[in-house]
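User: Here's a chain of 325 residues. Predict its fold as tokens.
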Amino acid sequence: MSSHSLEQYLKAAQRPNTQRSYASAVRHFEVTWGGLLPATSQTVADYLVTYATSLSINTLRLRLAALAQWHATHGFVDPTTADLVKKTMKGIQALHPAREKRAEPLQLTVLARVADWLDAAIVAADAHGDAPEALRCRRDRALLLLGFWRGFRIDDLVSLQTEHVAVVPGQGLTCFLTRTKTDRQQVGTTYRVPALSRWCPVTATLDWIGYAGLTTGPLFRAITRTGTVSVRALHENSVVPMLRRLFTRAGLAAVEVYSGHSLRRGFAGWANTNGWDVKALMEYVGWKDVHSAMRYIDGDDPFAQARIERGLNEPIPLYIGHDDD
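Assistant: Prediction complete.
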């Protein structure tokens, strides 16, 4: 007989970051706002109205999803499906439309600049016997290049385990993730990482693993000031500040424009510019639908200027009017 409870199995079916987000959303409803659970549709609608102007539509949707799951898990009727709640959300969207915020893509020129800076920093740290700096730079270089060239999400990067990284001689390496955002069946996904002639994610990853002496456990970890490598994975919320500090050290300006999706958007844009079709890009990155892929791709001619200008250079046909025009 199993020693696990139903609630434990239900939690295991969700990604850890989803669990944390839902738990935080329920706490906000109960503790911060003072709502009672189980809730009524009127209570949920009142909650939405309270935060209609201070929270984004996406955040409100997440709060509703968390409340829906809480009621389903505990055997109560889900109040979020009521017509009152749906109309309230529709009204909020109509009165408070929000422009979707997108991460600034990390361009290849910027990636190259930071990677080259890291290469020089590693040489300097090795020469001066600065082991903590050499460790940090090797870790950051591996995370940056692996994240870009595989189009990984931040939570995927911090979920990688050393024992699930395998070298394929002459081609690259494979990374196995036990769960990803699009892996609905929870069977795990294997990603193939190519060995490249420049700014190579394979060389950088293997260099980090070897220098840090990793054999099992999280691939990307915190490092103390004295150079001790933690046994725990980097927290996903620490990665963006870490990258921004790295970009600042490498001499970039306005580093605050970069977020957790910048590596993924940067690779998608680079691939699109270099002739990858959408299907190939979807298969490589792991998108399941075209809509998801297109959100990450900025076309070469977003204002359609080039296409219109080409039309303006064509001969203008003679227009013959009619009497009734």
